[in-house]
Amino acid sequence: MPFKVAIVGRPNVGKSSLFNRMIGSRLSITDDAPGVTRDRIYAKTEWLTKSFAVIDTGGIEISDAPFLEQIKQQADVAIQEADLIIFVVDSRSGLTDDDLFIAKRLYPTDKKVIVVVNKVDNVDLKQSIYEFYALGFGDPIAVSANHGIGVGELMDQIVQSMPEDFVDDEHEEAIRLAVIGYPNVGKSSLTNAILGQERVIVSDIAGTTRDAIDTPFTKDGVEYVIIDTAGIRKRGQVYENTEKYSVLRALQAIERCDVALIVVDGTRDVIAQDMHVAGYIQDYAKASVVVVNKWDIVQKDEKTMGVMKQSIYDTFKFLAYTEVCFVSAKENKRIDTLFPAINKAYESYNRRIPTSVMNDVLLDSVAMNPPAQFNHGKAKFSYMTQVSTKPPTFVIFVNDPSFVHFSYLRYLENQLRKAFDFTGSPLKLILRKKE
Ligand code: GDP
Ligand code: GDP
């Protein structure tokens, strides 16, 4: 589990702006799924040599609860989830009743709270931080999320607040799996089937609490860790069943996994919610396997699998490179078919291509299908190099990146996929201007 920092504060103080500052922008250039809006509320970040996770509780809208109820619940989420809380206030409006309301909510926790006074865009506004001492959480830090002022100091303080001996226990050796999907598709059942025992199911009695548990297991000599999201849903607190809360859970699991098992219900068509969930996998650039569950109760003939596969590829266009498996979690059928797909996705995710071979592919691809003129210029590609894995990330040097049409980048990605096996893994292609 990473060290977790939650951002709280009333609306419009700049929580999401600060969140974005803290995590830096990590745009994925393979991102072109239309109509999928995804608000980021959870991400891992790094400062100096430490890494930690940031949660923007402002993104957790709790249905149509009244305003004060909303911020109360957001504060509760922060207290429950985080190791450290950042309480954002607004220098321009000064201390408000709502700030005091949130402060009161935070007093009972023994977690450290840092007050961050946002919108201190220039030195004249520095005076405004003093009144926030009244909140009783010690020295406030002045920042401007918009201009990036003071954010470094905040990050310093966060890192200093991390316990010396904090270990981000991510089981480095094992393949980390997250089981994700829309409610009721069978995530808990699948997790149980994989683990081969009723380990995830917990009591439905209200108030039963249980911490997230990552369960390691070994299969045919390969080590895995299954990141628990499914069981948590049943912890019994009122707002844990809300969509956004389960989204937060899913995001945390996706961020921490290598391979996401995207579970869909075989008895119905793939729907928008499935898309939404799968969209996160793309955002976080994780490897994946699509798991069609409840195969036991699907009316099928010899064509059904093919038809279902096609409909999945049609819907999840950005998962065209992902394998689809058909299982029955409940009946414990075909569970074994998952592991070859998982292992393959993980291998693809870690694949390194020798530079010389890769450049042959680049040159051949360009020769076969030269780029058209775009933005008043013609792209001239020099060479490419793989800069990292997880996912495989390539930098392509070109005379001017603005001459490269998006579809051409897509073409190059497809050529790479034809030349090398990247089944189950996304790829990142980054254009750089050759000096
Ligand atoms: P949230 O509701 O707390 O998540 O707040 P947002 O991040 O959405 O910001 C609310 C508004 O405050 C937006 O219009 C931001 O542009 C603005 N804002 C955020 N940070 C700053 C800042 O440092 N200075 C100024 N002047 N405006 C800011
Ligand atoms: P979750 O909300 O995604 O964790 O879904 P659950 O694992 O709690 O399952 C939701 C419902 O679907 C339960 O009633 C399960 O018994 C049922 N279910 C799960 N997997 C299967 C399956 O493979 N076949 C059938 N017929 N039902 C299943």
Automatic annotation (TrEMBL):
Any one GO MF annotation of this record: hydrolase activity
Binding of GTP 2, residues: 181-188, 228-232, 293-296
Coiled-coil ranges (or none): none
Gene3D superfamilies to which the protein is assigned, alphabetical: 3.30.300.20, P-loop containing nucleotide triphosphate hydrolases (3.40.50.300)
Keyword terms: GTP-binding, Hydrolase, Nucleotide-binding, Repeat, Ribosome biogenesis
Ranges for domain EngA-type G: 3-166, 175-350
InterPro entries cross-referenced by the UniProt entry: G_ENGA, GTP-bd, GTPase_Der, KH_dom-like, KH_dom-like_a/b, P-loop_NTPase, Small_GTP-bd
Source organism, top-level taxon: Bacteria
Xref: Pfam families: KH_dom-like, MMR_HSR1
CDD domains in the cross-refs: EngA1, EngA2
Metal-binding keyword on record: no
Job description of the protein: GTPase that plays an essential role in the late steps of ribosome biogenesis.
Family affiliation: Belongs to the TRAFAC class TrmE-Era-EngA-EngB-Septin-like GTPase superfamily. EngA (Der) GTPase family.
Assembly behavior: Associates with the 50S ribosomal subunit.
Protein name according to UniProt: GTPase Der
Gene behind this protein: der
